[in-house]
Amino acid sequence: MNKISMTRRAFVTSASAVGLVGASGLALPYYSRANQRPAFTHGIQSGDVDATSGMVWTRTDRPSRVMFEVSSTESFTNAVRLAPLDTSPASDYTVKRLLTDLASDQDIFYRMVAADLADINAVSEPVVGRFRTAPASKRDIRFAWSGDTAGQGWGIDETGMKTYATIAKHTPDFFLHSGDTIYADGAMKDEVDLPNGGKWKNKVLIDEKRRVAETLDEYRAQWKYNMMDRHVLALSAICPTFYQWDDHEVLNNWSDSKDLSADDRYTEKSIHVLAARAARAFHEMTTIRYEPSEPGRVYRKIAYGPLLDVFFLDMRSYRGPNGSDMQETMTPQSRILGEQQIKWLKRELANSNATWKIIAADMPLGLVVWNDGTKKVGAEAVSNGDNGPAKGRELEIADLLRYIKNAGISNTVWLTADVHYTAAHYYNPDKAQFQDFNPFWEFVSGPIHSGTFGPNGFDMTFGPELKFIKAPTAEQGQNLPPSAGLQFFGLVEIDGATEQLTVRLMDRDDSELYKVTLDPVRSA
Predict the structure, then answer these.
(1) What 8-state DSSP symbol labels residue 113?
(2) Helices (H), 378-487
(3) pTM (2 d.p.)
């Protein structure tokens, strides 16, 4: 991995990578004055990278023709030019494409130049990014995960979203964003009074962040705000992001039962209208792949070489209405993944030949997350809080865990965020009410830049054991700002020789809080 890491670090400090932030129009005044030429407004992104392909994304400030070059060298001496793509107001001037026919385990550099469609000779400065394709053979792999960006009113202060910069120091193969990628329901203020007498100042703020998002343009603006942070831009230039979503991309705890009739913040009262607008913005503003069989689908598998498959769940789009979650039989109302997604997941897990199967969930399995946190009623996540046999949404997870055991599927590890603290959970059937499954680990890490909360209580249906936790103390209280330091991410490292998987839970100052190494179960 040292050779790969040195290549990445060299690129980070190169003129091309530094120039990215300037070309985004956010750092250098030259581009804001040069309005006779098109500009890239919010940097570049890559994502959903496998051994032979990867998505790339950018946004322009006007209708433009974007030219693409792809190379295996930073100098672009062997560059391949691709057919150009046009941006338009219909997609808010965003453009993304799948780069294909790439060599495995190879540094890929991509360069974009925009020409004004109204004056094709007016050409922008280039923007450059990089990623490395997944290996075809066994090698060391390192990736990071976290969730929860710019929530609870904590936006871009003078420090910026520091945890993104800390992640970048580790030069991961990719960053897995576990959901709550934006907070469309979290209006921000210029200043927030802190309990210690200080003030949090949102140094960067746009009008669309001063209220909840309702229109398509307002949902788009939530994404553009995050990409005004220099640390987010810098990580995106050198590291693919694999996205999934949860609730705050639409609004808090949304399901079909969400009733906005008494919420004065919203003039649009239909949760279905809001979810449709939010989903469109999510797909326009990220590098998530397009699935022709179900346009707009979030759940998918990314094959990352012989040691790793990543299964991204969507625990939001197919769930039944939030409620008591106490059904004793599995019905559409008691599901959280939905029948089709469960069939897909079982099939893909059974067909996986990768040593490790990472199940990226946007919500934890054994923590109680209330739909109404004040009254502590209703289920927002999987657990219903009764510590008994599987009921409601737990039925679907119990069925999945039983299938994984009976099908002989080994080396599954669950990663999640959502609850705004970091923890390590070991699910032990000997401690569980439902016992027909093999033990497994679940790791929680977040927020990356939001308020810190917790800890949540356990539901013992699946026998979770708490191995580690870092959350606010009772004295510290809840909704701590990022400046308090309790911002978290996780690192996963797979050794190419031993195939061991190591998980490290980290804070934004790059302190290692917890570490565990898992040995792979070998097939007979």
Answers:
(1) E
(2) 393-406
(3) 0.94
